[in-house]
Amino acid sequence: MEVRIWDISLAITDKHEEMELVKTLDIKMYKDLDFGGFIVIDGKSYRLCMYDNKKDILAVEPVKLNEEAEEIEYNSEFECPYCGSVNDDAWELDDEGETYCGSCGSELEYERVVTIEYNIKPKKCAPITRV
Ligand SMILES: [Zn+2]
Predict the structure, then answer these.
(1) Taking the CB of the first residue and of the last residue of the chain, which one, N or C, has fewer CB atoms within 10 A?
(2) GATA-type domain location, by residue (predicted)?
(3) Which domain does 30 fall in, by range?
(4) Ligand 1 centre from 37 Cα, in Å?
(5) Residue 60 near residue 78 (C-beta atoms within 8 A)
């Protein structure tokens, strides 16, 4: 199997073999490796993006894997603690629950925290007595 860096422009034109080669591995897809999650090659982490069955090419994207991820609190974005990817569609989720990271497939538990802010316009000042 060839592991190559995911490139959307080459994927659209079905030229997976032109993507930048990371390494040729002696492993079989769906036998030694299931689709989803991460692969670490020579100490570098990647998330799995696509597998081309005909050409035996696994397209990956470099990612900063945080295996010992900790809770992210009061973040303005829905960020995966494992891969750092941001879910821009998080507003579609219920207020709290469990979900999967759309990028790496890790399981996540979340809670939406709503903060209240005020906009205040001056309208009319109260009477002022100057002596
Ligand atoms: Zn993730």
Answers:
(1) C
(2) 74-105
(3) 2-62
(4) 8
(5) no
Number of domains composing the chain: 2
120: which residues sit within 8 A by CB, 6+ positions away?
none
> Are 56 and 70 in a shared domain?
no
CA of 56 to the centre of ligand 1 (A): 24
Quick: pLDDT tens for 38-68: 999 999 999 999 999 999 999 999 999 999 9
**Is residue 16 a contact partner of residue 52, using CB atoms and an 8 Å limit?**
yes
Point out the residues of the chain with pLDDT beneath 70: none
Q: Is residue 124 one of the residues assigned to a domain?
A: no
Q: How crowded is the C-beta side of 41, counted as CA atoms within 13 Å?
A: 21
If asked whether residues 11 and 46 sit together in one domain, one would say yes
CA of 21 to the centre of ligand 1 (A): 23
CA 85 to centroid of ligand 1, rounded, Å: 6
